């Protein structure tokens, strides 16, 4: 009988401990203030890929004291990508510090659109020119379906940008092409590759041209006409059509900095958007 009572009380103790553990987990989740830094509603990643990416986003966000967030969705619910990204940031408790510093990447699979939303100190850290340079790096991977690589690169670029911004000179039009820039070397390599290819093509064509000893350029077509075989009786000139081509004036990014807008919550955001 005593053993039965002991078992009964032991069961109650275990149940209470489990209940308190669940309550503590819920309280901790509530106190964290927001959803995980990766929300894969579009189901683009495996569970293991999600776990590793969340660890990376948490590490970067903690070290930089700026939330770095990735959200994928299957539907925008009638909103634009910018509106959806801004609202997701504002209404889910994201942002660190008094100014709610953070950057959010949204990927919408139905429309195949993306948007970046910045808030707080992240607005200055991720300038318009800087975001353009970033997206040139990882958006092609989204287009190819390499979602994990694209998200990892986005996270790593955010880490680099925030480190640069901490020096007081965020990546912008004045320093994106500098020798110390993370974008300098890829550009140099591409330029060298194109230049090398053009030089090689020029050498090959020159060699081929040198072998054509019997061919000479002609100033007119008379060499191809049999003497006395062509007689022009009448000739006329007709105006057929006019073609006008127009080229859009390039946007002026020389001023640098970040453009901003106000979200539905009344908060100021920076950002950019596009398709992939």
Lateral arrangement of strands in the main beta sheet: 1-2-3-4-6-5
CATH fold-level name of the domain at 36-178 and 261-275: Diaminopimelate Epimerase, Chain A, domain 1
CATH class of the domain at 36-178 and 261-275: Alpha Beta
Tell me roughly what share of residues is in helical segments.
Answer: 40-55%
Helix and strand succession?
A: HEHEHEEHHHHEE
Treating each run of at least 4 consecutive H or I residues as one helix, how many helices?
7
Q: Are there runs of 5+ residues with pLDDT below 50, and where?
A: 14-32, 185-193
Cα gyration radius (Å): 31 Å
From the N-terminal CA to the C-terminal CA, the straight-line distance is 71 Å
Q: Report the biggest beta sheet as strand number plus sense, adding barrel if it closes.
A: 6 strands, mixed
The number of E-state strands comes to 6
CATH architectural label of the domain at 36-178 and 261-275? Roll
Q: Structural class from helices and strands? A: alpha/beta
Q: How would you describe the shape?
A: elongated
Q: Report the average pLDDT across residues.
A: 79
